[in-house]
Design brief:
By secondary structure, the protein is mainly alpha-helical. It has a domain of 191 residues: Farnesyl Diphosphate Synthase (Orthogonal Bundle). 67% of the residues lie in helices and 0% in strands. Helix 1 crosses helix 3, helix 5 packs antiparallel against helix 6 and helix 11 crosses helix 13. The protein is globular, with a radius of gyration of 18 Å.
Length: 274
């Protein structure tokens, strides 16, 4: 299963695959299993497939992952089967918590991070990455009649208008929102064990780079899917190495901003539940 899980990761996410190369082998196997489960379950919904994910689910539960968190993830992914628009930024954050913040919680369990405060920041990293995904995949999602940009930010008619300036501005606003959650994730980096810290930091910086590319080039955003090139990845690797050595090799965790979870009341492992 480890080999097939690695194939799934390499095929579907070059960003995560590159970052996973810096994980210890025993941890990497568990991370690959979690990714494979999430990917296969999502593909079942996206492409109306019926691949059995029960064995993988049982396997990741054996890692100590809470079944309630897995159920939240599945609920979020299942919601993609319906065409209901996300109404507000609060609804967007709630959705991002379920489909990606929950993955952050799972990663804490895989990395044996027991401090509950670490999960606040892990949730924020998942939320930030999911917002980045949404901003990168707007056209692809629209082709599947899915719109994740909040209705109170932009209407469907404004999205398909020849004048796409509103679409670009709205996307940039969401990228700025994601940056707030990336910063919170960085403030919790100390909770990650030193032998896996660089890999997580590298994945964060690679994903955040996608947002920077979107905001920095409106024409690119409007005409093609924004992605990082090999040169971008190498540049981010060098930058991350210096940042890691200078700032995150030895650092102290900072208090989590509770307001970031004000939209997530009642959900597992959020700051609001304390």
């Amino acid at each position: 299963m480890a080999e097939s899980s690695n194939h799934i990761l390499k095929k579907n996410s070059k960003t995560f695959h590159i970052a996973s190369l810096f994980l210890p082998k025993n941890i990497k196997k568990k991370v690959l299993s979690v990714y494979a489960f999430c990917r296969l379950y999502d593909d079942n919904v996206d492409h109306e497939r019926s691949v059995n994910t029960t064995d993988l689910e049982n396997k990741i539960i054996s890692f100590g992952i809470d079944k309630k968190v897995i159920d939240q993830l599945k609920e979020g992914i299942d919601s993609d089967m319906y065409s209901n628009r996300i109404s507000s930024s609060e609804d967007l954050l709630n959705y991002c918590y379920k489909v990606a913040g929950c993955v952050g919680i799972m990663m804490c369990d895989v990395l044996n991070i027991n401090d509950r405060r670490a999960k606040y920041h892990a949730i924020d990293l998942g939320i930030a990455m999911q917002i980045t995904n949404i901003c990168r995949d707007i056209k692809e999602d629209f082709s599947m009649t899915r719109i994740y940009l909040p209705r109170d930010k932009i209407s469907k008619s404004e999205m398909i208008s020849k004048d796409n300036n509103k679409l670009f501005r709205t996307t940039c606003e969401l990228i700025s929102l994601s940056d707030t959650y990336y910063e919170s994730a960085l403030e919790g980096i100390k909770y990650i064990p030193l032998h896996t810290r660089f890999s997580i930091l590298f994945a964060l910086k690679l994903y955040q780079e996608i947002g920077f590319k979107i905001k920095g080039n409106e024409k690119l955003f409007l005409h093609q899917k924004p992605n990082t090139t090999k040169i971008d990845k190498f540049r981010v690797f060098i930058k991350t190495t210096f940042i890691f050595l200078y700032k995150y090799l030895l650092c102290s965790p900072k208090d989590h901003d509770q307001s970031l979870h004000s939209s997530l009341k009642g959900l597992p492992n959020t700051h609001e539940r304390v």
